[in-house]
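**Backbone shape codes:**
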Amino acid sequence: SIFTLAVLLASCGESDNTIKSVDGEVTSTAIADTDSEAKLNEELSSFEKEEAAREKEKLANLTTLEFDKVLHDFGDVESEVENVTSFMVKNTGDKPLIISDVSATCGCTTPKKPEAPIPPGQSDEIVVTFKSKPSQKNEIKKTVTVIANTPDKVHKVDIRAFVK
């Protein structure tokens, strides 16, 4: 095993390789030539510049939003009956608002997002349908998660119902 390691290191053509065995533990040191190190530093610098440009572009396309409400209370509802509400979302920024996803915490709640970008100053709605399952009784609270091109990215609105 030490012999194999020595052969591998020797085959690299490096003259600054060192192999040591102390108390049965093998350590190896391989020193890269300056050309390789310079190339790695250049690649790293290039990657960092590209990443900074991507981050700048991402920040340039962010906007802000505002909901007309963050909680809708359906009150008392019958089991297995569809209850529908909407949350109005307004683009309060200066770039188009893109809602990329809306999701709910369970299958009994179905949100539907606006498909088109919302222009600055304009509003659109997120429609939420709640239909309780037979096993759901008493107070129910569900969260709808909204993903958008905003600094916080994730926003939450809630619905509440008392299932009879």
Notes: Strands lie at 18-22, 25-29, 65-67, 71-77, 82-91, 99-104, 109-112, 123-131, 138-148, 154-163. Residues 34-60 form the longest helix (27 residues).
